[in-house]
Amino acid sequence: MQLFYRFLHFLVTLIFSLLISFRYYFKLTRRKIRGVFYRTSECDIKNGVATLRSLPRHLTFIVMEKDVDLCILARLVVWSITAGISYISIQTSEGDLDKRKTEFYGEVYQIRQEMSTCDYELHFTDKDSAEQNGVNGAAHKSLRKVHVNILSYHEGKEDVTKAAQTFCTKVKNKEAQSKIMNIEHLSNLLEVNKDFPDPELAITFGPVDSICAYPPWQIRLTEFISIPSLQVMDHTLFLQTLQQYNKCEQRLGR
């Protein structure tokens, strides 16, 4: 019986060791494959945008699907940065991303580390983010600054309400220069994407064309391009979307 227990212990130990080894080599192989994939996509995007005459300064992603794939969304953020876009915002239906921010930040940083170049300083504008801004928590003045903002689903409506209340309070206390609110007054009071320029391009994902409660005052001149699903998005389709935007001509009401 003692011999049987020894054999059983040896067998369990062997299986456990094999599982650990398999897990290690599986992760190592997956990282190498992903590294080749990301470096290939990085090279393709850089070569592709080099021929474009215009790129959006602020690109926003509006996702109207449940069970958002954070890995694909993180790739889009890193690809946008690779293309030279400095302001990126994300809006999801019902605020699905709000509860998974930390996980999403981790995906972005992991993909970022697997790219061949990292010549930018990454800033998340989320005040509750536990991630360190900049590179390794330190600011580098010589690097390009990239800003990423995750918008809450109900944030836009709440922001307008708060701005109206603040303005009324100032009028009541005779602190406002005018009793009539104009665009400039409203813009100064709004907090959502306050330090961001208005998005020039919005890429929407989902079966329905909708702004998904995106702050409407910021998308007056935004070009919208719809993709059926986030699942079909790869770096080739992303580059084609930028090329489509490059061909757009904004008439500004003319």
From TrEMBL:
Q: Which reaction does it catalyse?
A: n isopentenyl diphosphate + (2E,6E)-farnesyl diphosphate = a di-trans,poly-cis-polyprenyl diphosphate + n diphosphate
Its pathway, per UniProt, is: Protein modification; protein glycosylation
Query: Does the UniProt entry include the keyword Transmembrane helix?
Result: yes
Which InterPro entries does the protein's record reference?
Answer: Nus1/NgBR, UPP_synth-like_sf
Q: What is its EC number?
A: 2.5.1.87
Task: List the transmembrane segments.
Answer: none
Annotated GO MF terms: ditrans,polycis-polyprenyl diphosphate synthase [(2E,6E)-farnesyl diphosphate specific] activity
Tell me the compartments it is located in: Endoplasmic reticulum membrane
Keywords (A to Z) from UniProt: Endoplasmic reticulum, Magnesium, Membrane, Transferase, Transmembrane, Transmembrane helix
User: What is the official name of this protein in its record?
Assistant: ditrans,polycis-polyprenyl diphosphate synthase [(2E,6E)-farnesyldiphosphate specific]
